[in-house]
Amino acid sequence: MHASELNEIEVKNLVKKHWNGRAAEFDQGPSHGLLNEEQHQAWVAVLSKLAGSEPLKVLDLGCGTGFLSLLLANMGHDVTGLDFAEEMLQLARAKADQAGLPISFLSGDAEHTGLPEGAYDLIVARHLIWTLPHPADAVEEWTRLLKPQGRIALVEGQWENQDVKEEYEQIRSRLPFYGGQPSEQLASFFRSKGLNEVAIQPLMEAALWGGMPKHPRYLVIAQR
């Protein structure tokens, strides 16, 4: 079936199928999991600078196996993680339980969360927005969830998507940001959605990724 013939539910089900299928081995890759203490400390430094020392109410969208959620909760923040790949969530919950971290992991759609308005100081996501059929709707939803002066921070990049899985080959034309975006382009997109104080922080340190990244990696931050 051609991508244009798939309805909204079918597109999202293929995305869900893709990530459920990758859950078991997801943390083994250096771009996905924490493989050593140097990498752990590098991400702690990035997130400490982002979140600061005062406890925040944080929402981790497309949380996967809990990469950002676990780091931020360990820093003392009140973290909720949301994903619609249940096999990813099961792994995230198990890791939080093992670490003794009180993270609430919820099953849900990052474009339509159903969460309360104005509830979060900080919304984070890692390699999420390229997977969404409606990124503009998503950013409007995320803005709704923020407290006044709350911030959105996306860990993103621009890559070539080698070894594209079958599910994404079927639907890539339905995903506007497929393959990632140049940092300035994503920043301009945020500004066009009414967000303020948009800033880009390169994430090209080898320690973050288990080696020098082959493609641009960055953090884009914006304020409600």
Can you offer a commentary on this structure?
The structure is a single chain. The chain is α/β, with parallel strands linked by helices and 224 residues long. It has eight helices and seven strands; from the N terminus they run ααβαβαββαβααβαβ. It has helices spanning 8-22, 37-51, 67-74, 86-99, 135-145, 166-171, 183-192, 206-209; strands at 57-61, 78-83, 104-107, 120-126, 146-157, 196-202, 217-223. The chain has a seven-stranded mixed sheet, sandwiched between helices. The model has no long low-confidence stretch (mean pLDDT 90).
Derived from helix and strand composition plus strand pairing, the structural class reads alpha/beta
Strand content: 15-25%
- The helix content, as a percent range, equals 25-40%
Mean pLDDT: 90
How many H/I helical runs? 8
Low-confidence stretches: none
Q: Could you give the count of β-strands?
A: 7
Oligomer: single chain
| Envelope shape | globular
* Computed Rg: 16 Å
Main pleated sheet: 7 strands, mixed
Order of helices and strands: HHEHEHEEHEHHEHE
Summarize this, please?
The protein has 224 residues and is α/β, with parallel strands linked by helices.
Keywords:
224 residues, alpha/beta, seven-stranded mixed β-sheet, 8 helices, 7 strands, 21% strand, globular
Chain-wise SSE layout:
Blueprint: H1 8-22, H2 37-51, E1 57-61, H3 67-74, E2 78-83, H4 86-99, E3 104-107, E4 120-126, H5 135-145, E5 146-157, H6 166-171, H7 183-192, E6 196-202, H8 206-209, E7 217-223
Parallel strand pairs: 1-2, 1-4, 2-3, 4-5
Antiparallel strand pairs: 5-7, 6-7
